[in-house]
Design a protein that fits this description.
single chain, elongated, alpha+beta, about 20% helix, about 35% strand, 2 domains, Alpha-Beta Plaits, six-stranded antiparallel sheet
Length: about 180
C-alpha cells in the first residue's frame, strides 16, 4: 500500500548498512527545447556548453544540464537561480528561439546510495545498470513509472520522478531497502 509522503522536505526515507534512500532538496527544473542553430547562443546564456549526446550531462557550479534528446534538455539548478536562468534565456529569444518551461513543481528527486544501491534499483528498473556510465543519465521506467535515472557514482543513483508517482516508487524503494537489510 502506498502511504502519503511529504515531498517538500528533504530527509532520509530508508536506511540500512547496505543502502540508503533519501528525498533530495527541491531544485529549480526546466525543460529546454531548441534547434541545432540555437544551441551555441543558449550555451553562452547558461554559461556552459549544452551536451549534444543523449544521456550526457554538463555541470558547472550547481547547474546541471542533461541531454534527453537531439533537441531536448533538462536543466537543474538551485531554486534561487530560477529567475537568472529564465532571464538569460529570455534575453536571447529573439535571436535564438527556443522553448524553456519551468517544471520545478512537477518533479522530485530520490537518491539511492550504498553497496547494494544497484541491487535496490533492479527491483523496478529494467535497464542493465552496469552499462550506465557514472556521470550520465537516461530516461527509463521504474516499475512502470517514467523516470530519469542519474548515475552519480559507482554506488550512487538519483531518480527524478513526477510527484504524482513518487509515493508509489518511494514505497517500493523503502520495502526493497528493508529486504536488502535482512539478507
Amino acid at each position: 500500500m502506498t502511504a502519503h509522503v511529504d515531498l517538500n522536505m528533504a530527509r532520509t526515507l530508508a536506511k540500512s548498512s547496505a543502502v540508503s534512500v533519501e528525498l533530495l532538496p527541491l531544485v529549480a527544473r526546466f525543460s529546454l527545447r531548441a534547434g541545432t542553430s540555437e544551441q551555441a547562443a543558449l550555451s553562452k546564456a547558461l554559461g556552459l556548453a549544452l551536451p549534444t549526446k543523449i544521456g550526457q550531462c554538463a555541470r558547472k557550479n550547481k547547474l546541471e544540464v542533461l541531454c534527453l534528446g537531439p533537441d531536448e534538455w533538462s536543466i537543474l539548478a538551485p531554486e534561487d537561480q530560477a529567475v537568472k536562468i529564465t532571464d538569460a534565456c529570455e534575453a536571447i529569444y529573439a535571436k535564438a528561439p527556443h522553448s524553456l518551461t519551468e517544471v520545478s513543481d512537477r518533479e522530485i528527486a530520490v537518491q539511492i546510495t550504498g553497496v547494494k544501491a544497484t541491487d535496490l534499483m533492479t527491483i523496478g528498473c529494467p535497464r542493465d545498470l552496469d552499462l550506465l556510465p557514472v556521470g550520465e543519465a537516461r530516461r527509463t521506467i521504474f516499475d512502470g513509472v517514467s523516470a530519469v535515472l542519474w548515475r552519480d557514482g559507482a554506488d550512487e543513483y538519483r531518480l527524478d520522478l513526477w510527484r504524482s508517482f513518487a509515493p508509489h516508487v518511494i514505497s517500493l524503494l523503502e520495502t526493497g531497502c528493508t529486504e536488502l537489510a535482512a539478507e
